[in-house]
C-alpha cells in the first residue's frame, strides 16, 4: 500500500471478492459534507488527489477521476495518468461515463451513505440502458483495504453562546416546529452538520477547518429534538445547554431509529440527506417528504448578532492579513521564502490575535504557475520557492467564535509585467462592478455573475469557477443556498434569490496556465438600498472585508472615475477599520498603501 497504484490494485481485488464489477468513490461523508474528516478521505487515500471536490470510478480494466474546472491542473499534478483517466465535469457526469464504460451485465457498487437518491436514480437509469446494475454495499470496499483506516473524531462538542448566535436553540426549534405544522409533517431529519450545529447552537472539532460535530438530529413537530451523537462527545456543559427538550441518543442508533416512523410524515432534504436515509425511512413505513432542510435558508440569512460578529471577526482578521502583506512586501523579494513558509507566517499573524481558532480552509499559498490552479493546495512535495518576477496569490481565512472569514490578495514579487497589471485591473473592475451592483428582490446570484466577468469578456478572457459562495457564521466557509455563479460553472446549479442578511464572497479571477493566477476576494453582505426617486425596494452589497488591494498591480488609466472613487473610498475605510489596531510603523505603511489612486 506504499503506492497509489498498489491501493488501486488492492481495491480491484476486493471488488472481485465482493462480486462487483466496479465501484464509485465520492469525496464526501454520510452528511454530504464538502469538507470531511480524515476517516472519510477515501478519494485522497486511493488516488492522491488533494482537492475538495471530486469522484473516482474504478472498473476492472480502467479507472477515472472526475473533477471540475477548478482542479484541471491540480488533478494532473497529483494523480497518475498511468492509472487514471481525467474527466471534466459537468461536461461529462459520473453517471453518463458509467453508462458508456460499465460492462454489459456488470454490477457497479456504491455506498448508499455517500450518495443522494437523485444520483442513485440517475446512475441506475444510465446503467440499466447498458444492461448493468447499480448495487448498494453494506461495507465500503475502500475501507476494507485501507490499512490503519482513521476512526471518526471523538472530540467533544462545545456550546455556541446565544448572545453570539443571536437566537436560542429553543427559538430556532420553535420556528422549525411551525414549518412542520405548515406542511402537516411530524418530524424533519437534519443530516447536514452545519444545520445541526446552527439549530442546536453547538459547534465541534470533527472536521478540519469547519467547526461541526459528527451527528444527526430529528426535530419533532412539538419543537423537541433527538440528537444522535457518540456519548463520549457530550459533557455536562453541553448537556445542560441542550436541556430536556433535546434527547441524546448514540449516533450508532440513528440508522435503526429511522425505522421507528411508521405511519409518520417525515421531511428530509434530497440534496443534503443521503440515499440510505430515504431508503430506511421508506422501509420503516414512513411517508417521506422531500423538502429542503428548514435550517438552510434561516442559517444563510444572518441575524443582527451574527452580522455584528462577522464585522468584528473581519476587522481583526483584516489587520492580521495586512501585517502579513507588510511583511511579504519586503520578505518575498529578498528571497528564501516558500509557499509553505509564507502560509505559516500568515497563520502566525492570525494566531497572534489570541482568539483565532482555526483556518476556515487550507490556505491557498500559490506562487507563479501554482497560482493558475484556483484551488491549489501546497504540500511538502509541491512546495515552491517564491521568486522575483512571479505573482504570489494567497487565499485564506480564519475561524473565530464570532465569524468566519475568507479573503484573497495577490502580491507582485518584484516588478510585474504589463500583462499581469492589465489582467489584475480587469479583475478589479469586475470586483467593483459586483460590489456596487443594485438589484431588485428576487434577483439571483446567477443573474449578477456576469457583472464581474464583463471586463474580462471584453478582452476575450474568463475564469472557470463561480464568482461567489455563501459564508457561514462560525460555520462552513462554503455555505448554501446563496451563490453567485452560472449553472455551468463549478459552484453553480439552481440559483437562490438573494436576501438581506446573506453573506457571500466576491471573487473574480484570471488564470494563465503555467504562469500565474489572479483573484481579488472580499466578503459582501446583502442589504436593503434606498434609491432617491426610486419606485421600489432594492438590494445592494456592503463590503465586509478590509485589507489593501495591491496598488502596484493597478493600471489607473483603465479605471473609470466611478471605479477610482470606489477604490479610494474602500481604502479610506480600510484605514479607518484597521489603523486603530496597529502600531505607529504599521499605520504609516497602511496609510501609504491606501492613499488615493494616482
TrEMBL record:
<feature type="domain" description="Peptidase M24 C-terminal">
    <location>
        <begin position="538"/>
        <end position="597"/>
    </location>
</feature>
<keyword id="KW-0378">Hydrolase</keyword>
<dbReference type="GO" id="GO:0005737">
    <property type="term" value="C:cytoplasm"/>
</dbReference>
<feature type="domain" description="Creatinase N-terminal">
    <location>
        <begin position="7"/>
        <end position="138"/>
    </location>
</feature>
<dbReference type="InterPro" id="IPR033740">
    <property type="entry name" value="Pept_M24B"/>
</dbReference>
<dbReference type="InterPro" id="IPR032416">
    <property type="entry name" value="Peptidase_M24_C"/>
</dbReference>
<dbReference type="InterPro" id="IPR000587">
    <property type="entry name" value="Creatinase_N"/>
</dbReference>
<dbReference type="InterPro" id="IPR036005">
    <property type="entry name" value="Creatinase/aminopeptidase-like"/>
</dbReference>
<keyword id="KW-0031">Aminopeptidase</keyword>
<dbReference type="Pfam" id="PF00557">
    <property type="entry name" value="Peptidase_M24"/>
</dbReference>
<dbReference type="GO" id="GO:0070006">
    <property type="term" value="F:metalloaminopeptidase activity"/>
</dbReference>
<dbReference type="Pfam" id="PF01321">
    <property type="entry name" value="Creatinase_N"/>
</dbReference>
<dbReference type="GO" id="GO:0046872">
    <property type="term" value="F:metal ion binding"/>
</dbReference>
<dbReference type="Pfam" id="PF16188">
    <property type="entry name" value="Peptidase_M24_C"/>
</dbReference>
<dbReference type="InterPro" id="IPR000994">
    <property type="entry name" value="Pept_M24"/>
</dbReference>
<feature type="domain" description="Peptidase M24">
    <location>
        <begin position="310"/>
        <end position="527"/>
    </location>
</feature>
<keyword id="KW-0645">Protease</keyword>
<comment type="similarity">
    <text>Belongs to the peptidase M24B family.</text>
</comment>
<keyword id="KW-0479">Metal-binding</keyword>
<protein>
    <submittedName>
        <fullName>X-Pro aminopeptidase</fullName>
    </submittedName>
</protein>
<dbReference type="InterPro" id="IPR029149">
    <property type="entry name" value="Creatin/AminoP/Spt16_N"/>
</dbReference>
<dbReference type="InterPro" id="IPR050422">
    <property type="entry name" value="X-Pro_aminopeptidase_P"/>
</dbReference>
<dbReference type="Pfam" id="PF16189">
    <property type="entry name" value="Creatinase_N_2"/>
</dbReference>
